[in-house]
Amino acid sequence: MNTANVVTEQLTAAGRAIEHDSFAIIDAEAGPHAAYSDEQWFIVRRMIHANADFEFNGLTEFHPDAISAGLAAILRGGTAIVADVEMICVGLSATRLAHFGLFTHQFISDADVIVQAKAEATTRAVQAMRKAHRLGLLDNAIIGIGNAPTALIEIVRLIREEDLRPALVIGMPVGFVSAAESKALLAQIDDVPWIGIRGRKGGSTLVVAAIHALLGIAESRQRNAA
């Protein structure tokens, strides 16, 4: 009987060996991580693997319901993953998404988004989130923001002012203007689950890593339930 993940692992034995050796090195060098549960560490470790930056052991924060909410959204199938930039959608494994019936969306370069951003003197990222909301894609979705702090600020506004209820917000925008502030706002949200990073660090690769880690945990849950 198979006791290992198949869909969410590297496709070759050599690739799996390299990845598993990398995780072993991270575990050996990371130092204490008692602040994280086993499943939270599974996510943080993959984020470290994506950037070779051990500061994410400590900078990464989880809403108490983040893991359970993310897994429920993945395992129910048909869940939308809405990203602030195309890089996240491209970085996610199509095979892994298809296994769970997940679909990605991003609108940052849509012509109407650009026109509206210019008309309202806002950013494309803000208008892209508003477009996703108008299309009914954000409620019950996994929202991944790795590039644009203004997108995350808009999501927080929609949660507070328009009763938006995504399944999970993965808020990890990188940068020097409003990045740390946007993530601090996210950390104040109690009624929507989130995963975030304190400070300026972040990036789309980290959002991809976090989602891939959640997919790996979800496959383990599927396999154990079979």
UniProtKB/TrEMBL annotation:
Keyword match Glycoprotein: no
Keywords: Cobalamin biosynthesis, Isomerase
InterPro entries: Cbl_synth_CobH/CbiC, CobH/CbiC_sf
Domain Cobalamin biosynthesis precorrin-8X methylmutase CobH/CbiC stretches: 18-215
Pathway listed: Cofactor biosynthesis; adenosylcobalamin biosynthesis
Gene Ontology process terms (BP): cobalamin biosynthetic process
Gene Ontology molecular functions: precorrin-8X methylmutase activity
Superkingdom of origin organism: Bacteria
Record bears the keyword Metal-binding: no
Any single Pfam family the record assigns to this protein: CbiC
Family (UniProt): Belongs to the CobH/CbiC family.
Protein's UniProt name: Precorrin-8X methylmutase
Species of origin: Rugosibacter aromaticivorans
